Structure formats: structure tokens, C-alpha cells
What does this fold into?
Amino acid sequence: MALSSDRLAKLVGGELLRATGACPKRAIHDSRRVEHGDLFVALPGHRTDGHLHVADAFERGACAALVSDVSRLPDEAHDVIWVSDPLSALQTWAADHRQRLTGDCIGITGTNGKTTVKRMLRHFLEDHLRTYAAPHNYNTEIGLPLALLSMPADAHVGLFELGTEHPGDIHTLAQILRPSGAVLTSVGPGHLEGLGTVEQVAAEKWSLVESLPPSATAILSAESPHLLQRASRARCRTLTVGFSQGDVRARLLHTTPIQIELSEEQVTLRAPLLGEHNGLNLLLASVTARELGVPWALIKEKANTLSAEPHRLQLPTAPFGRLL
It folds into this structure.
């Protein structure tokens, strides 16, 4: 991400009010998590205003701050960049960083399963490719730019979740991420207060596919009719994946733990996870990993060592030997 404060100010159309020659290593908007060399982005919020925490960020080691309010700056020698809209500046910065990256960026969205598929996919890829995965829930207009700015320049692939609450959210995120591939896990009645109907949820999720270049591939859950019926409309290649239908089909043999069979590939995957939904997550992640060049033999081996999301359908054993 290495840009000097001076170059960053020019990039985002800001004004460098104080200059020490700093070259921030990371952007962060939570002053409690600031580390030495970070740039603190002062964002207004519903509960607080980041400008109230600029001094705290500097005390914790931040070398620079991106602000829109200069009235509460501490009298300290740190770089300060003034902009009219810190969030817009953050997104501009992230979009510029994306253009400098040579690795693939995979966008993952869906009503359910985003985080699980991302974790599984990272697990499958990490021994084969230098892989970066966005932190948990960094899937918003704030989180995704922060995550993208943290993707190393030498990473072969980055995995990013895209969330939504209102029409156009995913389009905005996709314009920043410029994904080179996508995984759509599901469509269901999520965030209806902002999106209205399941059909509108589907249209919102589908905007990720619409953002892909013609050379890209979108992996789609064939268990979601809203995705299946849109597959033929895509301008890029699509690969539908499911148990009942799809371009790639599997049989769900067991759900406690998960065991699925891909007959055409002559592969059976076993994972210490529970539930049919995790069977589909495993199928989506494994097919995506194979599309990214991971051999089935390695995917099969890695599936055996997958772990459940913390506090989600885990299999603890009681002291008296019973499985709970």
C-alpha cells in the first residue's frame, strides 16, 4: 500500500496540512486497534465521531490521519490530510491500490454462507497460492476498502466478502474491488427492510456478476433458483454447482460429518463439519479452488482438516465420552 502522505493527499484530492514524510503501512478507522505506522481514518458514525479519537490514534502510534474536521486536532507533529469526505477518500485510495495489484480478487456474496465459503476457500488455497482473505465482516463500504488496502502486493489471490443492505451497495463495492471472479452462495430473505423482496435481493447479489469482465468465471449455487435462472444472462462464464442440478453436481452422502461425492471428478470429500448447508458451502469452495488451479488431491486432503466457525455447529465431546 506504500504511498507517502504527500502522494496520498494528491490522489484523494486532499490537502496535506502537516507533513513529516510519513509513509503509512495500513489504514484503520478504529483508534483502539491502531498500531505503529498506521494511518487513522476519522469517520463520522452513528455513535461517535472518529475526529474525537485522532489524539488517541496518534498516542497509539499512528503516523498520519485522514480528516474532514480540523477543529479538534491535537498539537502534535504528525501528518494530517484534510479531505471533504474521508469515506470517499478511503474508497478512492483502495480503488487505486487495486489497480496496482497483480493478483486475482475474488468477490463472495450471498444471503448465507459468505464467511464460511471464504474460510474454506482460503484453507484450500493457502498451500498452493499466496492467499489473502479479508478479515471477518469487512464487507461494507468501510470494511471492504480497509481490507483491500491490506492485501499484499505479492498475493496471488485475495478473497473478499461483499455485503448489502440497500440497492446499489454491491455495485459500489464491486467498483472498488474490480473482481476477477465471483462466488454467489445463496439468495434468501435477508435485509428485506432495505431491499424489499427476495427478487430484489437476487438482483442486488447479481450485480456482482454484472461487474465481472467477460474473461471471468462466476461460481453460482444451483440450489438457488434466482441464481440459476439468471446464469444464461451473464456476459462472463458461469459454473452452476449443486446437489439437485447444475453444471457440477455432487451427492450429499452424510451430514454428520459432511461427506460429498463428485462422481464426474471421481472425488469424495470428507470434512469434520455438520449440516446440509455446509455440504453446499464445501462444494462451492472446492469447485472454486479447483477453478483456481488447486488439484483435487490437495483439496481432498485439506477438506479433512477444515474447522467449523467458532460457536457454530461444533462437535464437542463431553467428559463422559458422549458427542454433544
